[in-house]
Design a protein that fits this description.
Structural class of chain A: mainly alpha
Order of helices and strands of chain A: HHHHH
Largest interface: A-B, 11 and 12 residues
Number of strands of chain B: 15
Order of helices and strands of chain B: EEHEEHHEHHHEHEHEHEHEHEHHEEEEH
Helix content of chain A: 55-70%
Oligomer: heterodimer
Helix content of chain B: 25-40%
Shape of chain A: globular
CATH superfamily of chain A: ACP-like
CATH topology of chain A: Non-ribosomal Peptide Synthetase Peptidyl Carrier Protein, Chain A
Number of helices of chain A: 5
């Protein structure tokens, strides 16, 4: 539940940082957080866990995930792709 | 469970788990209580600058991940962490394995006075500072006062009756009373019963400061909780958890369980007087004690030890003393009465359970824990409060009192293990 400081503007996205955040919030080792891994099936994350993770990511990367996109966040790769899109658009 | 009404079934205590400011585990807690050691110190959990009271009883060096996985620890409030730790210890101590029993066999009544206070404060801070979208999705389940009972059921796979009883500082007295009744009437074989509290937060401490209810002896924390002493200036708030495993006596005996003691009776009443002040004549408290003794089938002459509510407030100490005179009559002049809150501080919703455990240990060890810091006894408090030194005593029956804001009163009558007093099972 710790507050997340925003990443400095212009800094490239770092997958290992996403691994670390997801690992801490979902209570798993960071190296289990891989692109093809399912949040629900592989990391035992329920919808509340995912909301908490998304909140932390929104704070860190200064992005906003529309509720309709939350539905599609099944794998870590989906989240990573969203972040890259947002980063490219910034 | 069995189809019988179960009236009159006897209830053994077969496990105890304690996480307190005077130690974690039965042995550590008993060592402190029997040595007269205070667990009160400066508050370290938040910055108390500007607070008139800056002392409390904190549970130190508590690592929740010893008792639950990392993710669970992140998603429950501190009171739940403490409660689950105590419940795990108690069940381990009992030797029961709820997960391999009928799911209806073991229930949980785990109470708290305030619940997940720090999560309420955190969620509110996020709401004020950053808006509704930044309230954690876990705030609601973390803050509610019943969730510790649910957590214990999930973690220990105990599927019987499950709830919390909330009655402020009497909560876990009522929880044990309820667990006792559930078993007596045959609705479960065992009940994991007790209380958990972690309310040393900026809002709670601040709110109680505004009531002028807490000691301001910040320079001398170990001497701050001084029930029945003229120098007292209020209670000292503490955190912690205490859980007992209550078990139907026949079940406990047949599986060869270690029996710590027995719940003989429980009584409850309302003061009908004031939100926060006790009835100055202690009439409500006296009715709860009488009801507990009546249910136990015992009289004043049977009571060998009283663990007083004894919070170290002037009104409360005097009212309880008067109540004990009303209930025990002549016996009140000779029976040892001590307040272990002088050492533990006041665990609020966990107080009744830690004090029930203190009674069980007093009976088991043949030693009555003292009331420490009793240097100049209030002349209006004229009982034998076992000042400053534990005292060897043959204790067969104990009475434990818990009184809460709202005028809630709960009294428990506890007995020594049957093998030790030759009552048989």
């Amino acid at each position: 539940m710790s507050a997340t400081n925003p990443a400095p503007a212009g800094e490239p996205l770092d997958f290992s940082e996403l691994q670390r955040m997801a690992g801490e919030i979902l209570g798993v080792d960071a190296d289990r957080v891989q692109l093809d891994v399912s949040f629900a099936r592989d990391l035992a994350a329920d919808s509340l866990d995912l909301v908490e993770l998304i909140m932390a990511i929104e704070d860190r990367y200064q992005v906003s995930l529309p509720p309709e996109r939350l539905e599609g966040m099944r794998k870590v790769g989906d989240l990573w792709q969203f972040l890259q899109e947002q980063h490219g658009a910034a | 469970m069995t189809g019988s009404d179960g009236a009159g079934l006897r209830v053994a205590i077969t496990g105890m788990g304690l996480v307190t400011p005077v130690g974690t585990g039965v042995d550590a807690v008993w060592e402190s209580l029997s040595q007269g050691r205070s667990g009160i110190g400066q508050i370290t959990q938040f910055d108390t600058t500007g607070y008139p009271t800056r002392i409390a009883g904190e549970v130190r060096d508590f690592d929740p991940e010893r008792y639950m996985d990392r993710k669970t620890a992140r998603h429950v409030a501190r009171y739940c962490q403490l409660g689950l730790a105590a419940a795990r210890m108690a069940v381990e101590d009992s030797g029961l394995q709820p997960s391999s029993m009928d799911p209806d066999a073991v229930g949980v009544v785990l109470s708290s006075g305030a619940g997940g206070m720090e999560e309420i404060e955190r969620g509110h801070r996020m709401l004020m500072e950053r808006g509704v979208s930044r309230i954690s999705p876990f705030t609601a389940p973390m803050m509610i006062t019943d969730i510790a009972a649910g957590l214990v059921a999930i973690e220990l796979q105990a599927g019987g009756p499950n709830y919390a009883v909330v009655s402020a500082c009497a909560s876990s007295g009522h929880a044990i009373a309820d667990g006792f009744e559930v078993i007596r009437r045959g609705d479960a074989v065992a009940m994991i019963a007790g209380g958990a509290e972690a309310s040393l937060t900026p809002l709670m401490i601040g709110a109680f400061c505004q009531l002028s209810a807490m000691s301001r002896r910040n320079h001398d924390p170990a001497a701050a909780s001084r029930p029945f002493d003229v120098g007292r200036d209020g209670f000292v708030m503490s955190e912690g958890a205490a859980v007992l495993v209550l078990e139907e006596m026949g079940h406990a005996v047949s599986r060869g369980a270690r029996i710590w003691g027995e719940v003989l009776g429980a009584g409850a009443s309302a003061d009908m007087y004031h939100f926060t002040a006790p009835d100055p004549e202690g009439r409500g408290a006296a009715r709860a004690m009488r009801a507990a003794l009546r249910k136990a089938g015992l009289g004043p002459e049977d009571v060998d030890y009283v663990n007083a509510h004894g919070t170290s407030t002037q009104l409360g100490d005097i009212a309880e003393t008067l109540a004990l005179h009303q209930v025990l009559g002549e016996r009140a002049r000779t029976v040892p009465v001590s307040s272990t809150k002088s050492m533990t501080g006041h665990l609020l919703g966990a107080a009744g359970a830690i004090e029930a455990a203190a009674c069980v240990l007093a009976m088991d060890r043949g030693l009555v824990p003292p009331t420490i810091n009793l240097e100049d006894q209030d002349p209006q408090c004229d009982l034998d409060y076992v000042p400053n030194q534990a005292r060897p005593a043959d204790v067969r029956v104990s009475l434990s009192n818990s009184f809460g804001f709202g005028g809630h009163n709960a009294s428990l009558v506890l007995g020594r293990a049957p093998s030790a007093n030759a009552k048989g099972a």
